[in-house]
Each structure stands twice: as C-alpha cells, then as structure tokens.
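Annex B. Sample input.
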Amino acid sequence: MIDLRGKTALVTGASRGIGRGIAEQLAEAGASRIAITYFRNDAAAAAAAAALEARGAEVLATRYDQSRPDDTEGLFRTVRERFGRLDVFVANARGDYDRFFESPERIGLDQFDYAFASQSRAFHLEVRHAAELLGDGGRIVAITYAPGGRTGSWQPWIAMGSAKAAVESLVRYWAVALAGRGITVNAVSPGLTEGTAIDALPADVVEQLHRWGRSGWVPMRRLATPADVGRAVVLLATGHAGFVTGQIVHVDGGASLMDPSFPLAVQWPGVVP
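Annex B, continued. Sample output.
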C-alpha cells in the first residue's frame, strides 16, 4: 500500500502541467504538507493550491525563479520556517521557453547560460539545500527529458537538452553522495505529455503528436498524462523504492524502446500495419 501520510514535500514548478500532476498525486497518496512553486501565474498557483487543499494537504505556494541562487536559498528558508523539514523534494521547474529556445547557429551565450542556470546549476544548489532539510531516508526526484540529452533532432532544444543531460549526471553524483544517509536521488523522464506546453502548439501539430502516439511509436498507443508522471514520482517517494537510486525512470508508454532507424512495421510485424 502506498502511504505518504505525515510526509512533507516540495515540488518546484507545480502550478500547472506535470508539476501540478506530481503534487496532486503526492496529496492523493496522503502527503500532509506540500510546498509548490510557480514562476509568474498567480491564478494558476491559487488553483493548484486549492486542488491540493481539497485533497487534505496543507499548502505553501511561493514564487520562485530557480535560475537565481538567492531565490533558491530563500525558498528553502521559507520551507524550513513553515514546515520545519522535508521528506520529498521534486525538481520540476523548467525555465522560460523564450529565454533558451533557439537553433544551434543562432543561440546566444546568454540563452545557453540561462538553460544551465535554470536546470543543472539550480538542481545542484537545490539538492544541497534539500539535503539539510531531509531526514535519513529522504527522497529527491528530478524531472528531466532524457531524449534531449541523447539526440540532436530537436534543434532549438540544444541548450535545454544539454542542461537536462547535466542534471541526469548530477543525479548520479548526488545519489552516491547521499547514499550513506539512505537518501535516494533519481530522475523521471516523461514522454510527450498532455496538459503541458505541447497544448500551446498549433492544433494540427497537437493532432500529429496524438496520431504519432496512436500509430505505435508509443507502444501503449497514447501520450502520457501529468498523473502518469506523478504516480511514478510517488512510487520513488515511498519506502518500497528505498534501494533504487541514481536511475532514470522513463514514463513514456514504451516510446523510448522504439528504434527510429527501422519502420514500425519492421519492428512490430503483425501489429503495426
């Protein structure tokens, strides 16, 4: 039985999308106190807080720019003052698209620096602060995007893909560093997820993505949902996953198992026409 009653969690970037899905699943599992951060959307943060309170959690919602070290220090100070401790820390906040999304030929150093400041540097600083609040047996989970660190096809993702790859490396280093305290450090890599930034794409592009998933490139024939990602985080947050650390868990319905160098009909004969 999954039971997080009495646990305190912090989820960054949790006013919408995957972050909110994670926070809601933690609340569903019984987490008693949940701190969430948001970047600028007060209304979305208020709605997320209300949804968590409706599930019985005490909620702290605070603005946060993870690319600013002073903000990171202030966030963890605020959590300490309000809740006293942490049991689960989830680093989900991504950063502002407009500040890093650019092709390799055109991207500026300021854009590249922002991607790393808002991801790998931020995660490193967050874990250092979180480790002071986490008791032995605490849980740390980074939300990443593993394909961005392995492939080069999504060209304007060059800065964020590189920064996410660095986060995955940091997960392994911190997993070793904190293992003696029984603190696990893992990453969850979602596939394309409904209810996230993809919904802002043109309608025909969104439909193409859904068709792509249903066609078999996602073996489970659909895109992920924020709740799917949240449930994976909850599993990693429980005592049942106490011997799992330094790993990247793909929540993508099997999409990462498919090989783009072969036609689907060759990979999955008799199933995909």
